[in-house]
Amino acid sequence: MSGLFITFEGGDGSGKSTQAQLLSTWLTDAGHTVVRSREPGGTELGLELREMVLHRRGHIAPRAEALIYAADRAQNIATKVRPAVERGEIVIQDRYLDSSVAYQGAGRVLDADEVRGISLWAAEEFMPDLTILLDLDETIGRERLDEARTKYDRLEAEERDFHARVRASYLDLAAAEPARFLLLNATDSIESIAAAVRARVATLLSSL
Ligand code: ADP
Ligand code: TYD
Predict the structure, then answer these.
(1) Which residue's C-alpha comes closest to atom 23 of ligand 1?
(2) pLDDT tens digit string along 118-147?
(3) For residues 63 and 162, what is the distance between their CA atoms, to the nearest angstrom?
(4) How many other C-beta atoms lie within 10 A of the C-beta of residue 50?
(5) pLDDT at 36 over 70
(6) Three-state SS at 96
(7) CB atoms within 10 A of CB 59
(8) How many CB atoms lie within 10 A of CB 66?
(9) Which candidate, 1, 2, 24, 20, places its Cα nearest to that of 10?
(10) Which helix (H) or strand (E) holds 23?
(11) Ligand with smallest separation from the Cα of 192
(12) Is the CB of 69 under 6 A from ligand 2?
C-alpha cells in the first residue's frame, strides 16, 4: 500500500506552515497517519544543515548553498519521507525541490535544470503526489514577516528583486506541471485556502 507525499511551496510568509498544520489536523481527525516534515531541517542531520545554511555568518557560494539543501533533502527523503509513504502514511511537508529551483535557480541565478537535476539525484527521483503553491506578492510576504519576527535568515534577508524572481519561477513551475500543482492565492482567507486544499486532497484520496 502506498501513502501520499504532499508538499507546500511559496515565498516566505505565504502561509505554508499554517496550511500544512490545518491539513495535518484534518487528516489526523479523519483517521489517517500523518507525518510532518520540512526542508531544510526535517531530520536530525537536517537541523544541523539548516542552522548552517540559514544562520552561518559569512558568504556561502551559491553552488555550496545548493548542495547543502540537496544534502538535507537526501537525508529527509531516504530516512523519513520515503519510508513513511511506503508504510502507507501521508507525509505533509513544508518546501521541497521546487524551493531549490526557485531560490537557488531563479534567486541565486544558477541553471534551473542543473539545480533540479541535483535535487532529483539527491532524492532518488522521489516526487510529490501533490504540491500546493501559495502564490504571494513578495511585498506582502515581507510585511507578514515584519509583523511576525525581528530577525531574518540569510534567504529572507535577500532584496526584493530576489524574491520577485523566486515568485515568478514558482509560477512557471506550476504552469509546467499543472497535474502536480494546486495554485492558490495566498491573500485569500486562511479558511478558504484550507477548504480548497482539503477538496483537492479528498479527490486524491478517493483515487488511491
Ligand atoms: P510560511 O510558513 O509560508 O512562512 P506562515 O504560515 O508562518 O508562513 O504565515 C506567516 C504569517 O502570515 C503568520 O503570521 C500567519 O498567521 C499569517 N498568515 C498565514 N496565512 C494567512 C492568510 N491567508 N492571510 C493573512 N495572513 C496569513
Ligand atoms: P523556511 O523554514 O520554510 O522559511 P519560511 O517559513 O520563512 O518560509 O525555509 C527557510 C529558507 O530556506 C527559505 O527562505 C527558503 C530557503 N530554501 C532554499 O533557498 N532552497 C531550498 O531548497 C529550500 C528547501 C529552502
Answers:
(1) 190
(2) 999 999 999 999 999 999 999 999 899 888
(3) 16
(4) 20
(5) yes
(6) coil
(7) 9
(8) 22
(9) 20
(10) helix 16-29
(11) 1
(12) yes
In the reported structure, the alpha carbon of residue 160 is separated from the centroid of ligand 1 by a whole-number distance in angstroms of 19
Distance of CA 185 to the CA centre of its chain: 16
* Structural domains of the chain ordered from first start: 4-206 (3.40.50.300)
- Distance CA(90)–CA(102), nearest Å, equals 25
CB–CB of 98/7 below 8 Å? yes
C-beta neighbour count of 135 within 10 angstroms: 17
Question: Partners of 35 in the beta sheet?
Answer: 91
Mutation test residue for ligand 1: of 12, 14, 16, 18, the one with most atoms within 8 Å of CB:
18
Q: How far is the CA of 192 from the centre of ligand 2 (A)?
A: 24
* Model confidence at 1: pLDDT above 70: no
Q: Is 89 in the pocket of ligand 2 (CB under 6 A)?
A: no
Please give the grid coordinates belonging to residue 59.
558568504
